[in-house]
Amino acid sequence: MRQMPSDCVMPASTSMAVNAQALLRWARRLLGLVALGAALQSHAESADCPPAAEPVSMDVAKLGDAADRGFMWRIDKGGRTSYLYGTMHVARRDWAVPGATLVSAIRASDVLALEMDVLDPSIMKRLLAAMAPRPQDALDDALKARLVAQIKAACLPEQILGVMSPEMASTTLVVMAARRQGLDPAYAIDRSLSEVGHGLGRAVVSLETPELQIAALRSRTHAQAKEAIEQTLQSLETGEATPLLLRMADVWAESRYSELDHYEDWCMCMSTESERALMKRLLDERNPAMAQRIDALHSSGKRVVAAVGSLHMIGPTGLPQLLAKRGYKVERVEFAPPGAVARQQ
Q1: Per-domain residue ranges for the chain?
Q2: Please, are residues 74 and 104 in contact by the beta-carbon 8 Å criterion?
Q3: Radius of gyration of the chain from its Cα atoms, rounded to whole angstroms
Q4: pLDDT per residue over 42-70, tens digit each?
Q5: Is 298 exposed, middle or buried (0-12, 13-18, 19+ CB in 10 A)?
Q6: What is the spatial distance between Cα 343 and Cα 36, in angstroms, rounded to a whole number?
Q7: Which of 21, 22, 108 shows the shortest CA–CA distance to 64?
Q8: Are strands 343-344 and 329-334 parallel, antiparallel or unpaired?
Q9: Average pLDDT of the residues in 259-274
């Protein structure tokens, strides 16, 4: 993992630190929330509730005109070309349709590889089982009351606590808070890509299993889970839950690669030993297995588009660098402004 510059001073604001920690926990779980989008639709009970997500048409015959967003790399080895694509697991409605360059790459591919194919019914079933509440997840009455209050404020039914653990539910609320600014996991590009891949008749595979991903993402002890819930609730109660998420979403939507590449400088997520250990577990320790899986697919004679969260793409332990070490020629595809043509860098 890259070390932070010695002159990078982290903000001292407690609320902002809590916000960063909440975002880290949110990021750990968001892909599962994409799969649970239908279950998390707004139960609007007042005019103050954000509107429920509206379906976005993915007519594959009409794709190809949308603006390119996110981050992309071309990888070549053995006379075949594959692509890496960095996603964002939450988005605005008009970001949901894949851009022309990405669609072209999928059309030219044999396999679409995602972190998890959220449209696979078996994946959904296994995710639900993995995220389900356990007896050891029970909260004290005071903390549960705070959690229920935020669930209601997010226009969600209290019954979600019967579907997912309190820790999972608390980080779900960070995503739900962002809906008031127009961001929704229902519009995530990951889900759209799965629809496009299946619609084009491509093989759609998962790079990770639900069990392995959730096992890596859960807090290790009840005390850690309780602390995570308390910090997330504090960020929601103080209104500090969404600014960092909004910035990350804009970085992705505008393909601001330099800003993404220096994520550690502004994420407020590397200031303590525990935060650095968390980032290592979430990114560095997962990337080698994904790189091996992508390499295996490509080496089997397949042309692959591998689309995973954008933070898996940066630094010396990011997928582009890991695949370069496996003998791939790696070139970043720089997305041009709408109306222009993407070019390779």
Answers
A1: 34-43+66-344
A2: no
A3: 20
A4: 444 455 888 888 889 888 878 888 999 99
A5: buried
A6: 36
A7: 108
A8: antiparallel
A9: 77
